[in-house]
Amino acid sequence: MKAKRYLVAGTAAALAIGLSACGGSTGNSSSGGASGAPADDSQCSQTTVFCVGLVTDTGKVDDKSFNQSAHEGAKKAAAASNGYYKYIETQDAKDYAANIKQFTDKHYDVVITVGFMMTDATAAAAAANSTTKFIGVDQAFDKTKVTVKNVTGLLFPEDQAGYGAGYLAGLMTKTNKLGQVLGLEIPPVQKYAKGFEAGAKAANPAVTVSTVYHPAGDNAFNDPTWGAAEAKKALDQGADFVFGAGGNTGNGALQEVAKASGAGDTVFCIGVDTDQWDTVPAAQKCLITSATKLISAGVTDLVEKSKDNDFGGLVSMGKAGLAPYHAFDAKVPDTVKSKVSDIVKQMEAGTLKTGVTL
Amino acid sequence: MPHPSARPEREPAEPVTPPAPPDSPAPGGPGDGPGGLLAAIFRYQSVVVILVALLGAMAIGAALIRYQGVNPWYAYETIFKQALFTSDGLTRTLAKTTPLILTGLAVVLPLRVGLFNIGGQGQFLLGAIAAAWAAYQTSALGVLAIVVGVVVGILFGAMVGSIAAILKTWRGVHEVITTIMLNNIAAGIVWWLVTGPFQAPNAGGIPQTHEIGEAARIPTVAGIPLGFGVAVVLALVCAWMLKRTTLGFRFDTVGKNRHAAGYAGIPINRVILLAMVFAGGLAGLAGALEVHGVMHHFEPAIAGTLGFDGITIALLARSNPLWTIPAGFLVGILRTGAAGLQFATGIAPEIVDLLLAITLLLVSIPVLGRWIFRSRAHKVSAASTSWGS
Amino acid sequence: MGAWVARNKWSVTLAAIVLVAAYIFYALSSGTALSMYKYAWSYAVPLVLCALVGVVGERSGVVNIGIEGQLLVSAFAGFFGAAYSGSLLVGMLSGIGCGLILGGFLAWTTVKWQMDQIIAGVVLNIVATGITSFYYKPGQVLPALMPHVSIPGLSSIPLIGEVFFKGTGVIALVAIVAVVVIHIGLFRTRWGLRTRAIGEYPSAADTAGINVIRMRLVNVTLAGVLAGLAGVYLSMDSTSSFERGMSAGRGFLALAIMIFGAWRPLRAAAAALFFGFVTATASQLQTEQIINVAPQLVGTLPYVMTLVVLAVAAGKVRAPGAVGQPFVKGDKS
Questions:
Q1: In chain C, N or C terminus with fewer CB closer than 10 Å?
Q2: Which residues of B touch A185 (CB under 8 A)?
Q3: 8 Å CB contact of C39 and A252
Q4: How many Å apart are CA B26 and CA B241, to the nearest integer?
């Protein structure tokens, strides 16, 4: 009796596995793209085959933030050079090295690692794999420790993007009150925030900026509910511009502003990192612009550059700036537009310093 | 035998430690089923239930993988190949297994006295950050800093565990509630420390502590992380303690019937306190070993979900310390293989979490065991005592 | 009413003091005060709903630590239901439905199959996290915004009306109603008496002819509706998106609030508001840069205070007697 029951259970399970196995492909879902691109990564060691790999920090490539931007840039670069592209989403911070190794074992030409938590792992992998080029997004390598040439850190002047956004907000605010809803208090976020405040004060000395960072650590970038509540509070206290900078937490703030009465007329929101007109469509009603760092373009450029002998330095400065105004093009006065674009140009030229120090 | 806390199984393979007889020989494992054939089946039963649950979970997982357009055989093969047969796969799997065994034990021991410790996460976090701090402060001591770090880690973990025990014995507060609260409190403290007082100034604003000294790092010898050895030994010690010592007997007696234990003159409060101190210490040790053996500094991501994985391990192991080793190893394999799986097939690594969740569901649903064995005779006791008492 | 006040004189006095203090603060600085109260209430809404789930479950003798999972899956189902169907109503219903199903799962496994309640809850949480992260799809949007309404009359009360009844979401209104209804239900109706009986002393209730098993099944399952509403609130009302792990521990925080509120709906709601106000204060201190309290530590306050209350007021704050124990007919243990 009992034996029979084991048998039933066993066969049922075996059958289920067997059935579902039937007709399965070899199971390679390539994310490559363009026709003519290699179908898999078995040929990556050949010089004619160009392979690009990407390792996220403990985030996902659909995070609407820097992982996604880097992913898109890498994908585009691979497609442009008719190469092969694949990514791994790290789940455990202890796996950084192992995940990079997956790519170096297959002799990928370029490996992109995303996020400053991977700085050390990237430097170590670059030292160990001289034939592979490494691009570390948001990673500042220590000149005294990293001596190899096959690695570069893609950094951005976030403070400039923040400054430009703050300048715009400072010129346009009617209430002289601005709010910032931010993720974790870490350098890239701080640079945005301090730049925003400096820019706003430069445009309008009467302005006050209320700044709040997410208190808890683990979900600081993933708590849209908190972001929304903070944005609401800022609006209730008279802010008419809210700068949401902090992954999904900031996105929550943007969406909340979009719901407020007068959204797009009297109250506005400013996105961060990418042009959030595209990534957070729910915020389009208030999203006047975004303080962006052009991660996608930066990654694409560097992948292209990796075909040269070396990157030409441990630091590759990417571009940061303001996203287009989209539907708000008509609502932003021309004088404001020209002043803001002036400021942005001055910063790019290096004649204007934001004065932001951490 | 659907219940994890119900009884200690006589595991098929005897532990390799020499069974040193304690001062007073404990009566043979209390609660062992009746003798003869029935006992054999009972012993067997839990293994069968787990195997069926695993197969069932893998079957469901296969369907999910198939649905994603990937051959399930290939997917499973990749996971196991990646975790066991690549150049450093086994080492990484063992390194991942180490904290899993320890946090598993941190759930198993309290389960044996009828407490549910879901505070492994907090105990782990505070143990890890304390170890990282202590080892950095004493890096002048060289190798001895390992000892300092590990001891401090254990102490801090044990301290967190003991808070739950003290509130339990002194005030009758349910340990599940206190450990949930303590997890959140620990997370807050750790994030405050790592972005404030303990933050390494040269880390460029990254929330992490100083690197510990080179000498204070626990090495990997012949592909086996030393920490893994520690974890295995501790699992054996726990098994021995539960089975062969007076204390182990007391643990089980308190866990089975607190009233009887009281009449028998067992100091229940002390047993509860000890169980939680051991548990906290084990979780804290897991944190310290991760600092010394893997990360070499503290960052909040060091904990991952290890504290909660301990619950999975303990349930898979049916609250038997020895079984935490294979259970931890299995979870370690899945987690190690997950990234390789995505590399080879593009399936999101969360599939592994889903697999584990389904396994856990099947393992813990009493109906599965009952269905296989048609045994309705057993009575189910709660793993933990009531909320208020 | 008079008798009720007499019995709860301490609570009523405290409430009165708080209310007066709130109005004084409002009079001093209406803008700031109002925004902080609104913040506190929006913080509290999902917590109140989830705490009610816990109260109903525990009063019936079933521990529910799977609230976090119910919340997450409901938020997931609500958002994607609405996004794919193009209808907010479908989204809300699927969110609530998922809360109900998971409540039913918990009830069935623990009450019918006598699975350990803690384990069932833990399993629920793990499964919820696995499913929602694996099946998450980016790039979806809600078809519309959730309606916000002002209750005529009530919304013109200074302060209270503005916080609770003016331009408020439907779910927040439901939360208010649910607190009152469940509180009265628990302490004033036959259902409440029976519920408390099966939670305190199931074998006596059984002897008295109450169908303990069925009542626990129904109560725990139906409480899932509230968890579903809370989930929908997270992904559709307070924000317009679902993100992985967006419940962010609120299900566990609700447990703390339930205990802090001594398993009583009104007190739990008050506790949720209190912690909401503490959080608002912390945020206000941070924005105005008055004093630099570490926000991480302020965030632990609800947990610390719950522990303190449990340690100090143990005996007075007591869980229902039979919570956590499966009921087996004819079993007196």
A1: N
A2: 195
A3: no
A4: 10
User: pLDDT tens digits for C111-152?
Assistant: 888 888 888 888 898 889 888 988 888 878 888 888 888 888
Residue whose C-alpha is closest to residue B109's, from B272, B346, B341: B272
Q: Please state, in angstroms and rounded to a whole number, the distance separating the CA atoms of residues A350 and A99.
A: 38
Q: Which of A84, A83, A71, A69 is nearest to A29 (CA)?
A: A84
Q: Say yes or no: A7 contacts chain B, CB-CB below 8 A.
A: no
Residue type, B67: Y
Maximum Cα interatomic distance, chain A, rounded to a whole number of Å: 87
Lookup: tokens for C205: 């209730």
Query: DSSP secondary structure string, A118-156?
Result: GHHHHHHHHHH-TTSEEEEET----TTT---SSEEEEE-
The residue of chain B nearest to residue A17, with distances taken between CA atoms, is B59
Place of tokens 């400013």: A270
- Output the pLDDT for position B384: 37
Query: Which residue has 């430690």 as its token pair?
Result: B17
Domain boundaries, chain C: 46-267
Contacts of residue B10, defined as CB under 8 A and 6 or more positions apart, other chains included, come to B29, B32, B43
A31–B75 C-beta distance less than 8 A:
no
| Nearest CA among B3, B116, B353 for reference residue C63 | B116
What is the rounded average pLDDT for all residues in chain C? 87
Token output for A148: 């190899």
Q: How confident is the model at residue A113 (pLDDT cuts 50, 70, 90)?
A: very high
- Compute the Cα dihedral for B336, B342, B345, B347 and give only its sign: positive
Q: Which contacts of B194-201 are long-range, i.e. CB under 8 A and separated by 24 or more positions? A: B194/A217, B194/B129, B194/B298, B194/B299, B194/B300, B195/A184, B195/A185, B195/A217, B195/C296, B196/C294, B198/B129, B198/B132, B198/B133, B198/B298, B200/B297
Handedness of CA A90, B203, B132, B91 (dihedral sign): positive
Residue B372 and residue A9: Cβ atoms within 8 Å?
Answer: yes
CB-CB neighbors (< 8 A) of A212 in chain C = 283, 286-287
Reading the block at residue C257, the tokens are 């609030």
C-contacting chains (≥3 CB pairs under 8 Å): A, B
Its pTM stands at 0.85
| The token pair that represents A294 in the structure block | 């052009």
User: What is the full DSSP assignment across B12-68?
Assistant: SSPPSS--PPPSSPPPS-TT---SHHHHHHHHHHHHHHHHHHHHHHHHHHHHHHHHT
A258-311: pLDDT as tens digits? 988 888 889 999 999 888 888 888 888 999 999 988 888 889 888 888 877 777
Q: What is the rounded CA–CA span in Å between residue B169 and residue C131?
A: 38
Q: How far apart, in whole angstroms, are the C-alpha atoms of residue B191 and residue B189? A: 6
Hey, is the C-beta of C311 within 8 angstroms of any chain B C-beta? yes
Sketch out chain A's domains with CATH numbers.
Answer: 51-155 (3.40.50.2300), 158-292+325-349 (3.40.50.2300)
Q: How far apart are CA C243 and CA C264, in angstroms?
A: 32
CB of A87 closer than 8 Å to CB of A56:
yes
| Residue A152, min C-alpha distance to chain C (Å) | 30
User: What percentage of chain B carries pLDDT values higher than 70?
Assistant: 82
Q: Is A23 left (phi over 0), alpha (psi -120 to 50) or beta?
A: left
Q: Is A31 exposed, middle or buried (0-12, 13-18, 19+ CB in 10 A)?
A: middle
CA distance A23 to chain B (A): 8
- ipTM reported for the complex surpasses 0.95: no
Which of A157, A188, A275, A105 has its CA nearest to residue B88? A105
Q: What are the residue ranges spanned by the domains of chain B? A: 90-329
**Percentage, residues of chain A above pLDDT 70:** 89
Predicted confidence band at B383 (pLDDT cuts at 50, 70, 90)?
A: very low
Helical axes B306-316 vs B350-364, angle rounded to 10° = 40
Q: Please tell me which of the candidates B180, B315, B380 has its beta carbon nearest to residue C255.
A: B180
